[in-house]
Specification:
Blueprint: E1 2-4, E2 16-23, H1 31-40, E3 45-49, H2 59-64, E4 70-75, E5 89-94, E6 99-106, E7 111-119, E8 122-130, E9 150-156
Parallel strand pairs: 2-3, 8-9
Antiparallel strand pairs: 1-2, 3-5, 4-5, 6-7, 7-8
Length: about 160
């Protein structure tokens, strides 16, 4: 998806930010494939769902999903009793972008990660929400009073939800 914004790469004459969403069903041990997708699709920002990367995972695992010249922000799922895998979202972005975490939230039911991308004309807020298929959908309220921001919401659902 192309989002109006600053030219994100020296090789691009476009003034758009290229954004992709990928349900990885465990990003651990899939870094090379994730790097290839980001490169092949020329993504400036890639949002990953179901990373299965925990808050206490070593940096070697957390940072591995970001290719060279990219950085990553993670939001791990709170672990409920007995569950050892699943959940987690991440935003991988070009280091040339000015990105900050707007807010994040995690429960045993869902994860939410919102990041602000600064542009010359303002900012874009990208919001990613992931919830497992068996959980009741929660309604989210707007967390910012800035009327000029654009909200993009990515929700992943399994086909059993439809």
């Amino acid at each position: 998806m192309d989002i109006p914004g600053p030219a994100a790469a020296a090789h691009s004459r476009s003034k758009n930010i290229r954004l992709g969403v990928l349900n990885t069903r465990s990003a651990v041990n899939k870094a090379a494939a994730i790097h290839d997708i980001i490169h092949d699709e020329r993504l400036d920002v890639a949002v990953l769902t179901e990373t299965w990367i925990h808050a206490d995972s070593p940096n070697a695992i957390k940072l591995d999903v970001a290719p060279p010249s990219y950085s990553v922000r993670h939001q791990a799922r709170q672990q409920s009793s007995g569950k050892t895998r699943g959940g987690g979202i991440a935003a991988i972005y070009r280091q040339t972008l000015k990105l900050s975490t707007a807010f994040d939230f995690s429960t045993a039911e869902f994860e939410l990660l919102a990041v602000n991308i600064a542009t010359k004309s303002g900012s874009i807020t990208v919001v990613c929400v992931y919830r497992p298929p068996a959980v009741v959908l929660f309604l989210l309220r707007r967390h910012s009073a800035t009327p000029c921001q654009i909200y993009l919401i990515s929700c992943c659902y399994s086909s059993s939800d439809l």
